[in-house]
Design goal:
The complex is a heterodimer of chains A (about 425) and B (about 170). With about 425 residues, chain A is mainly β. Among the domains of chain A are: about 115-285, Sulfite Oxidase, Chain A, domain 2 (Alpha-Beta Complex); about 295-415, Sandwich (Immunoglobulin-like), CATH 2.60.40.650. Chain A has helices spanning about 130-135, 165-170, 185-190, 215-220, 385-390; strands at about 10, 15, 70, 80-85, 100-105, 115-120, 130, 140-150, 175-180, 200-205, 210-215, 225-230, 230, 240-245, 255-265, 280, 285, 295-300, 310-320, 325-330, 340, 345, 355-360, 365-375, 405, 415. A 5-stranded mixed sheet of chain A has the order 7-6-15-10-11. In chain A, strands 8, 9, 12, 13 and 14 form a 5-stranded antiparallel sheet that branches. In chain A, a hairpin with a 6-residue loop joins β10 and β11 (about 210-215). With about 170 residues, chain B is mainly alpha-helical. Chain B has a domain at about 45-150: Cytochrome Bc1 Complex, Chain D, domain 2. The chains are: A mainly beta (about 425), B mainly alpha (about 170). Chains A and B meet through β6, β7, α3, β15 and β17 of A and β1, α2, α6 and β4 of B.
Amino acid sequence: MRRINDEIAAGNGLLHRRTLLRGGMFATAIGVARADDTIGDNAPAWMKTPGRGFSGYGFPARSQEKVQRTFNAAPGRPGTGSSRTPIHLLEGTITPNGLHFERHHNGIPDIDVSRHELLIHGMVRRPLAFSVDALMRYPMETHIRFIECPGNSGGYAQAQPAQTTAAGINGLLSCSEWTGVRLSVLLGEAGLLNGARWVIAEGADAAAMSRSVPVEKCLDDAVIALYQNGEAVRPEQGYPMRLLLPGFEGNQNVKWLRRLKVTDAPVDARDETSHYTELMPGGKARQFMFAQAVKSAIIKPSFGMTMRGPGIYEISGLAWSGAGRVKQVEISADGGKSWAVAALGEPVLSKALTRFRLPWQWNGAPAVLASRATDESGDVQPTRAAWVAQYAAGQFYHFNGIQSWGVEADGTVKNVYI
Amino acid sequence: MSISKFAPLLFALGCFAQQNAGRVLTAEDVAKIDITVAPNGSGLPAGSGSVSEGMEIYAKKCQSCHGIEGRGQPQDRLTGGIGTLASSKPVKTPVSYWPAATTLFDYIRRAMPINAPESLTNHEVYAVTAYILSIDSVVGKDAVLDAKTLPRVKMPNRDGFVSYWPVPPRKP
């Protein structure tokens, strides 16, 4: 049997990713049964009465009542803003539909599906309208993809670390199995004219939210999504249909999609000028940074959790990239001085969340944990300082710097910068 | 195994490849729903509006959220900040930051006022746009905006954006 010391992978107790964590030995109770015993004497109450009956649509366990999205609705504007996925209370990589993060610009529209159509027009040979019934006649495809708001993790751009949960920092991030019709098929039927370069997508919400999308993306892996984790797309996510642009910033994945106008140029929509652009020192702003850059966050442990004394713990978290697959995640337990390669949950999918894990022998002393992801294009997360240095004061969109947590001697976890 | 065994399957796939389940639209169908306005002015409707008309509409329908002269509170600030983008305290507003005046028209028409979106007439949208732009003298106090004059408005930050699509420029 190998000793723990043989398994050390990096400084301050990080163990090799193939280290097997074993459970303790369980004591076996030995009793003597008598003739007038019932086994119910030793059974919990729920084994001694018939359970609850069937339900048309199930719901989580009672003890999970606190697993909720968090949001702060603006006064007088209940449907404007965002809610966050409680990533610190979930496991795996798929977000339950009721917990997918939300970003709305004027509420969730109550759409009469029989009157909703998707129009494709502009620089096309034949302008077309598709009802949901019409779209159902096309071959469908299914992909697991993350969607991330470009404002996600923006708190990390602040001068001082925000003392909030992993969801408070990274909760504008979700991952679902999406099913729908490949957009290139519909554009092919409409027939793109020479010079078609952009597609202006618009939603049927009370903001008619609109974004410019490069035609190359629309002809690549874009999908008109009708199903989310096997059921019709939720109203919060765009029912009856949303534009799914794998890896691109969440805002471009237009919900309640009603119109695609093919053009020769972008339109400088409000949400691609006012928002989701970053001012650089000198006063110029970066625009059209569509693919979400490679990123990772440790979720276990994270702020709000308490380590119960020295011992072996599993560090785990999520990594993702808008450029494709996550190639590697490294973890540091000494504030970035040394790094160990984490195990990645299989299968590692393109433009989907990837779960990483690594055992850690915590010695009980203060420690700083950090994660650093690399994607298949070779991009690596920059340090927070390097990310901040690219931009003018106050910029926070598209943050993808290395994140870190400080574990205190008493086991509490704080947000710290390294 | 012969290819003929797969012929029905191939036929079915062929049908899928050109499903043609869409309804063909007429120009009138499209005109009813196409509200996109581009920086070159394409999509701008008939109508016009003056700064003075816009001031009245703004006071009634916009000011309670965006403050006197667009100074903000409780909602977004609309005016000021011109010349601050290269400073240590950049102030991004529609007039200081947005590259195209058409964006203001397009956004107001599709999304504002927030409690009654799509309720302003095209005249009113031109007028409110003119008023907001006049506060910082981006247009004159006597300006009248319409489909011809609006795209010609020179926004202070019209050259301020660097496109990172499809790739970052060599010298950002």
